Amino acid sequence: DDDDDDDDDNNDECPPAPGNDATYTFQFGSPGDDYYFAARVNLDNASYLDVILEADADGWVAVGFSDDRTMNSDDVLGCKRDPSDDSVAVIDTYNPTTQYAPNE
After folding, report:
1. Is residue 9 helix, strand or coil?
2. DSSP state of 102
């Protein structure tokens, strides 16, 4: 049934949690705490990263990737909750070209 497939896409994990055998080489924070970020090179295609974002937040959580710490035209990966139906979606966006000073 196609309706069952739609339900699987609208869960409260972003992205859905990997299997228990997943090992992430880079971790910041701890699962279940206020925030958690984990990343690893994808096991099937080294051109991709597997990322886990978890936070005690209303609305969204995101992480940015920059090669110069200015976040100038750099990639941002996030999870956004839609308050109208409480669904969660992955978003892949970028910062505009305006340069801001890095957080110290």
Report:
1. helix
2. P
CB atoms within 10 A of CB 24: 15
The pTM for the full model equals 0.62
Structure tokens at 21: 């055998």
CB 91 within 8 A of CB 78: yes
**Interatomic CA distance for residues 25 and 47, integer angstroms:** 16
Give the tens place of pLDDT for each residue, 29-61. 888 888 888 889 888 889 988 888 888 888 888
Laid out side by side, the sheet with 87-94 consists of: 60-65, 75-82, 87-94
d(CA 32, CA 53): 11
